[in-house]
Each structure stands twice: as C-alpha cells, then as structure tokens.
Amino acid sequence: MFKWTFGIISSSTLIIFFLVFSSEQGNATGSEENPFLTGDERNNIKIFSDVSPSVVYVTNTQVVRQRFSFNAMEVPRGSGTGFVWDNNGLIVTNYHVIYGAHKVLITLHDGQTYEAENVGVAPEKDIALLKIDAPSSALQPIIVGDSSNLAVGRKVLAIGNPFELDTTLTVGVVSALGREIKSLDNRTIKNVIQTDAAINPGNSGGPLLDSRGQLIGVNTSIISPTGANAGIGFAIPVNTVKLIVPQLLAHGRLYRPILGIEVLPEYWARRFRVKGVAIMSVQDSLPAGRAGMVGIREDRRRNIQLGDVIIAVNDEPVINEDTLLSLLEKYQPGDEVNVTTMKDEKIHNYNLRLAEPEN
Question: Per residue in 230-241, pLDDT tens?
C-alpha cells in the first residue's frame, strides 16, 4: 500500500523514484534476479525447470459396454505420471497406473499425445515399461542417479500430476530407508525409500529427484486413511529400476531363475502348518527334480504327507513363497545354490544349479 503526500517534487526526484520502483518490481517477478530468493529456492526452481520436460502424463483407458444399447465405448479408467527413460521413446511408470488398461496414452510436456506400447511389466516391483513413437527432438530423457548413497535427511523433490493437475512440484526429505511395501500382486518390495514430500493420487509413477535433479526413485504409493497425502510416501529406488528396465526390454518381465517346483497353495500350507515353502510337485528335468527333491505324497492309507519344505537358500531363511522369490532374484540362471529343506522331520541339503525361466 502506498500513501501519497502532496507537495512539490522536482523532475529529477520523480525520475529517480520511477527507476527505483521499476527495479524493485522487476526483481519481484524475475526469479533469477530476485535478491530475496534463498539458495534452496533457486535450486528448487532450476530442478523443476530442467526436469519437468522429462515428466509425462499417463492416461489409462478401458472399454465398457453401455447399459442398454450394449455398444462398446472407451472411457478413462485412471491417470498417473511417468518419465522419459531414453531417446528411443521408452517411458517408465508404475504397474498399478496401467493395470487393466485397454489403451495407455502418454502426453508429453509439449502437449502432444501418443498411444503407448506395453514393452514389459514387473507387477512384483510395481514397474511398467512403455514405448511411444515420438520424435527424439520431443523427448528429454531424465538424468539417472544413484540411490545407494542416500541418507535420511537428504532433500528430495517429486514431480507429478496429482488429481490430474499437470506437472506439480513438492519438496521434502528422505524420511527413512529400507522400508518394505506390498505390490499389487501382494509381493514384498524391499529397500523402499520413505519420504515426506507430498505424494498424492496421480503422482504414482513420477520421479523422485535429489538436489542435483537426478532420478533417485519412482514414486509409488502413500499411507493415508483418506487417500491424500499424510506425510508418508514411498518410492522404488532407482538402482532397482536400473536392474529391471533391461530385463523388461529383453524379456517383457523379470528374468528370475527357477528351481523347477510347484508350490503348495497357501490354503493347504496353512492347514499343514507349514513353516517355509512346501513343494507340491517337481519337474524331473529341472534342478529340483534332478537333485532328488520331492513334493507331497500319499501313504498306503491315502493320507497326504509333505515332501521337501524349503526353509533356506544359501543359509538365508525362507519364510514363505514371497521370501523364496525375493532370494532367487539375487541370482542368475546357472548359479549354484544350496537349498535346505525339512523332510520327514530331518534336515536335507541339496546343491543345484538354477535354470532359466520358462517362456
């Protein structure tokens, strides 16, 4: 608010006042020249300016039939965020963002929209890899960082499209490391980053960045009774994503070695009070069968008896199928492992060479 005082003002004084007033107004609007910006604010502005062209809007559509005419029509099912992985048009997002989609549309920073091809998905890690046929000039790949040197308290920034609001920035810190969350298929995702940077519906699949503007995680979920941000969000570490993307590109799924077993269903495992992973059957031509492991059997009275129950792999305990699969993800086909089982109330050890997954 200005208070005007009437009096005689010389022309030179009036000119000086005009120049000073104009300079202050310019500094208030020019972010780079504004002397009142802190170093942290300048950092936020620069990162958002540099990285937002790499962030994309993901729309998931499905086909439904009209109630009375039964005519099929395509309607939006949900939306989320993703980011450009490379100049070939690869886009990374969350699996749950595209789950159940009939068609996935990607809108780039320039407003152009492309239909995406599903290259591969890893539901157990909540990661999906898409591809769009866009000119390389329209694509700005994100700079991939390293999540191994993160520490609690480090600044992080999230860019996404919450509630269909285009390209929104939130800022926070790493609240905790090594968290575990459940994926859509009820698998445990380990070593997850926890942050207090606001992650709302629509932010899923967007990048979590460090103070250099480098990708350190993929925002995936929140803990909230209302579905809105409550200060606890999670992101898949970028080092996990760097391992997954080549597998999805080559195989369309995670390339996990196998033992060659069929696991006893969870319902029956609970009835038998199994501690570990009970084998229902083995394939003779695959590692478990060749090593002599056996599944469930019937005795002479037609009572069901358990065969081998896996309790450890290379001395790492196996609690359930989820932990067994997580342990196998550490190895490659051809690696030799020691599998410890319980059978007939005795401990058994089997040395076997892991096989390639079947198509």
Answer: 568 899 999 999
Residue 174 CB contacts under 8 Å (≥ 6 apart), including other chains: 150, 151, 152, 153, 154, 156, 193, 194, 195
- Which candidate in 96, 196, 210, 308 is catalytic? 96
- pLDDT number for residue 106: 94
Rounded CA gap, 89 and 131, in Å? 5
Does residue 348 carry a catalytic annotation? no
Nearest to 54, CA basis, from 195, 210, 160? 160
Domains plus CATH for the chain?
11-51 (no CATH), 55-138 (2.40.10.10), 155-251 (2.40.10.10), 261-353 (2.30.42.10)
How big, in percent rounded to 5, are the helix, strand and coil portions of the chain?
A: 25, 35, 40
**Which residue among the candidates 79, 175, 183, 204 is catalytic per the annotation?**
204
> How much is the pLDDT for 15?
41
Please indicate whether residue 173 or residue 69 has the higher confidence score (pLDDT): 173
pLDDT of res. 273: 87
Beta bridge pairs of residue 343: 346
Quick one: 244 exposed, middle or buried, by C-beta within 10 A (0-12, 13-18, 19+)? Answer: buried
pLDDT at 201: 75
Q: 126 catalytic, yes or no?
A: yes
pLDDT tens-digit map of 4-25: 433 444 444 444 343 444 444 4
Number of H helices, E strands in the chain: 7, 21
Phi, psi torsion values for 320, nearest 5 degrees: -155, -175
Please confirm, yes or no, whether 12 is among the known catalytic residues.
no
Q: What is the CA radius of gyration of the chain?
A: 28
Give, as one character, the DSSP assignment of residue 335: -
Can you tell me the mean pLDDT for 46-58? Answer: 94
CA distance 340 to 259: 13
Phi, psi of 275 (to 5 degrees): -110, 95
- Do the Cβ atoms of 332 and 348 come closer than 8 Å? no
